[in-house]
Amino acid sequence: MSIAVSTKGVTNFNEVLTRVKAAGLMKKKPSFYMIRLAVISVLASGLWTASAFIGQAFNENPVWIIAGFGIAGLLGVLSAQYGFIAHEAAHRQVFRGNKANDALGLVLANLFAGLSYGFWMKKHNQHHKTPNQINADPDIAIRILSFTPESRNEKKGIERWLSERQGYLFPFLLFLTGFDLLLDSFAGLVRKEKPLKTRLLEFGLMTVRQAAPYVAMGFMFGWLWAIALWLFQMMIFGFFMGAAFAPNHKGMPLVPKDSKLDFFSRQVLTSRNIRGSWLKDNLMGGLNYQVEHHLFPSMARPNLRKAHAIVGEYCRQNDIPLIEMNLIASYVVIIKYLSKVGLSNNVDPFVCPMVATLRPRS
């Protein structure tokens, strides 16, 4: 089904953008990010210091084992926080200049989160251009998940088996997100889209990030325990990354590959907001304001909450569906949707955003 471009949609965006600019919400806030990075780095340094003390006393006592895994898990959470700020640097949210944002993003993504900044930028920019569009959005072209029956039917072997059970397995599959991103990151560095010098720099930083914690844990806890702790850290890192990004679009209307949508409709109708709180805003990297992030991708995180009030009011005034729900409810929607795609041969995967399911505000 082809959907015509809406002139009103263009007007909608211009009107909202005017209101947002008038409120001063497009201004950068580098101090927010510098303070946040300082806090995260102090916490990470404290955890590594604590792990050194635990490593000296480590004798495979259950108490020390639990403490070791606890620290590894917290380091995984902090790695995800570095990843969120790298994501924001890629969107030019931190500084005015592109070079400063790219330098920060490259260091944070490759050296602190362990993922390729170049790979992430290419993949994520394409997602923003075509969110939830079939055969265009890389975020719905995932190896072990299927978002349409056609995608499920194309898979074979273990990928097909997982897709058919993806609804039940989804919470557990989130723990594999970090490994999937890591494999894609290294694979992306092989492609010759970036200069060799840049790819070698990214490879070097990623290698240091992935090897250094393992070596450090090896000396502190022994090499077998180091492998277990590294794997656990990667699982927690991946879970937090996947759990923060999944509620934003999964289970929302899909756009047929040949459809044309105006920018405002494309971003609002395919995105889902999560009701915010101080804790969610921090743990999810501001991604709980997904509609506003997609409408204004270069907007600094602290301004998203204020922009949400403006966008929400405009959508209510103009009877435009804006989906917002609590975090648990969003996961329920995702799991039900993935189960339908995985198990049913007659599922309508919300292919038309104008028809969709556009579920009422909850």
From TrEMBL:
GO terms for molecular function: oxidoreductase activity, acting on paired donors, with oxidation of a pair of donors resulting in the reduction of molecular oxygen to two molecules of water. Keywords: Membrane, Transmembrane, Transmembrane helix. The keyword Metal-binding does not apply. Signal peptide: none annotated. The chain crosses the membrane at residues 35-58, 64-82, 103-120, 168-190, 211-232. Residues 67-323 form the Fatty acid desaturase domain. Pfam families: FA_desaturase. It comes from freshwater metagenome. InterPro entries: FA_desaturase_dom, Fatty_acid_desaturase. GO terms for biological process: lipid biosynthetic process. This is Unannotated protein. One of its GO terms (cellular component) is membrane. The lineage of its organism: unclassified sequences, metagenomes, ecological metagenomes.
